[in-house]
Amino acid sequence: MRRICVILTLLMLLSLAGCRQAGPELPEPDGGSAAAEASGTAEPEEALRLSVEALPGGMSELLAVQVSGGRLSFAGCAGDGSPRLGTLDASGGCSLAELPTDIGKVLAPCFDGEALKALALRDGRLCLLACSGGGEPAVTALTGEALEGLGSNLEYCEYGGMGYIRASDRVVELSASGETGRSALLEHDYGYLCALQPCSGRLCLLAWNPIYRLGTLFELDREAMVLLPLETGGLNVTAIGLDSDGGLLLGGELEGRECVCRLGEDGPEPLFYWDEPGVVSPSYTHLARLGDGGALLCCYRGMDMLESLSVEDAAPKLRLTLLAEHRLLELPDIVNAFNRESEDCSISIRYMDEEGLTPERLQAELTAGDGPDIFAFEDRSRLGLGGSALEDLLPRLDADPEYSRDTLVPSLLQAMCAEGGLFWLPKAFSISTFTAPSACISGPGVSYEDAKAAADALGLPLFPGWMTRDTLWGWLSRFAVGQFVDLEAGVCSFDSEDYIALLEQCAAAAPELSDDYASLYSGLLQFEQLQNFIRLAAISQNYGGAYVFAGAPNDTTNGSMFTPGLSFAISARSEHGDAAWQFVRSVLDEQNQGLTDLAFPSSAAVLDAQLDVMSGPGLDFYGTVYRLSEDDVRKFRELLEGTSTLSDLLPAVTGIMEEDAAQFFSGQIPASQAAAYTQDRVSLYLAERS
Question: What is the pLDDT of residues 503-556, one digit of tens each?
């Protein structure tokens, strides 16, 4: 995932400076209301705007920062892996230190007002560099038992002749001679330490618990060498830093909005809210303003670019609301990139799981015209959205000057248009299928009877033991929707011998996992969620190249199905469909298509380019190079082009199948009766749809 990190050049408004003293009343989020709309004739107004710059000092990645002495000291590495150590002052001037040639990596910088220092690795061992007055830096080797297990995610600062190293689980004291001494340990319940900030004669630290998404601010009691929690007045802290006057800056969530604050006597006083410049879910850990009204620097470990935030006279942006089923991993990066580049509109995010929305309440919102403009999901059934709630995107795709139907993988587009339109646009997809040895199964379209005979000949079960009855039914029923429902004709065929055989095959599976570990993965047909070409290369290696994508046994389809990944849809009730499309179409940008390794890109051109790499030089993944043979590419192409079924295309049909199958599995009715019930109910459902 592309990690968005920021150095923000912030020329603060006078009103924002006044907010620091007055403790302003919090403005209500606009939620995309008419009050927030902008038009081409709107009067320009002062607003915060983002732009992008390269990292200073020729860095390609930032590893650590420290704010002190009126400047930012930084450590990182260049594109060739060579270390970088330097400072950035309030005017944006960058100074780099000359490093000894035997320094392999600079981990944590510190500027004490006179000398630039840093923790570094020399010959794989931790040392302290001191750069002052030019010339070769002094190098002090660090010693002591406390160095064991510190890791490489470190920060460093100095107080009263002592140094302090922040690791993920402790703070270690360091003498001037490089000897480690006492340690202050973080209690496990707080998560891990992610930031350290010297401030007004004290050391403040930030801990983050990713499970509960909860930040805790600490002060290091240097006398007792313990971490003491600090009160933050209801602010869930995610970042710490310094203001230009040396006051403590805190970033975090306050009353549901992400902001940057100072702590006043009455609690946190917001300076600005991140949704003003269109930044959602900020992941910064360090903040700093260098010089009066000058620069606010916001960054975290791993940043690969700078973004500047400045006050400009510009027409106000149209605010659109996006509703997501939950906190989807890639979503903030995609929204932030769009908000930064768009001249006309800005996207804010609501999360259904955090707001307590039910599908029923959402439908009520939509009916009242108060719902979101855009939806983001990996499973649209969690939002309870039917086709009538979503706009058909095909006309927009056809009218788009840059993209067209040919932009998408053809078979994926065809499967998604089975309901007569394209109601959501996937950024990526995977393919669910079953693999088998090519010596036993010649290809997809094998019947249960033939597949079972092949398994018996090898002395194997048909499916692996980890696929218990519920698991097997959960996947085979989803395949069955595409196999036994003809949406174009509006008919179904659940009262067939094939569907009855499917029910009986699932009923024959073990209801619980076996204690026999070997049996869990022993089976002729191995289930596979094929998500990327690295996995395809691993499958080929496991079978020695002699494999086939057999799919689920059936004689109608290839037994495989598409599972769309992160997808976007436009509300049919949105008054801002044109603006919403500008965001939705952005997921087809090559930059966004390359964000994930967890699914295949939905762009046909990007997918072809990835195949060219895999069948040519290959992909180096953590030191292992993965390649595909011509035969692997051919098999994948055949799988891709032959797949016509979409996972969860009709959630209502899946629900009907599940209810009737449950009666059969519990012994209440025979398989033929369950199939008949499903046939009648789905037929009625299809008739009502038409």
Answer: 999 999 988 888 888 888 899 999 999 999 999 999 999 999 999 999 999 888
The closest of 117, 130, 162, 126 to 145, measured between CA atoms, is: 126
Question: Tokens 């005017």 identify what position?
Answer: 91
> Phi-psi category of 178—alpha, beta or left, where left has phi over 0 and alpha has psi -120 to 50?
left
- Is residue 552 a part of any domain in this protein? yes
Q: What mean pLDDT, rounded, does the chain reach?
A: 87
In angstroms, the CA 158 to CA 138 distance is 16
151: alpha, beta or left? (left if phi > 0; alpha if psi -120 to 50): left
Does the pLDDT at position 5 exceed 70? no
Grouping H, G, I as helix, E, B as strand and the rest as coil, residue 402 is: coil
Statement: residue 236 has pLDDT above 80: yes
Whether residue 333 is contained in a domain is answered as: yes
Residues 351 and 424 in one domain: yes
Residue 228 and residue 88 share a domain: yes
Cα separation, 73 vs 87, in Å, equals 4
Domain termination site, one of 292, 313, 334: 313
Q: Are residues 283 and 391 in the same domain?
A: no
Contact 49, 309 (CB under 8 A): yes
- Residue 639: strand, helix, or coil: helix
Burial of 178 (0-12, 13-18, 19+ CB in 10 A): middle
Residue at 639 is within a domain:
no
Which pLDDT belongs to residue 595?
64
Structure tokens at 171: 């703070």
Both 434 and 424 in a single domain? no
Kindly tell me the burial class for residue 268, based on how many C-beta atoms sit within 10 Å of its own C-beta (0-12, 13-18, 19 or more). Answer: buried
Query: What is the total count of domains within the chain?
Result: 3
pLDDT tens digit sequence for 93-130:
899 999 999 999 999 999 887 889 999 999 999 999 99
Give the CATH number for residue 497.
3.40.190
Inter-CA distances, 237 with 8, 153, 243, 253, Å: 19, 20, 16, 7
- Domain carrying residue 63: 6-16+53-313
Q: How far apart are CA 251 and CA 244, in angstroms?
A: 16
Does 557 share its domain with 571? Answer: no
Instruction: Indicate if 373 and 482 belong to the same structural domain.
Output: no
Are 419 and 436 in the same domain?
A: no
pLDDT of residue 170: 96
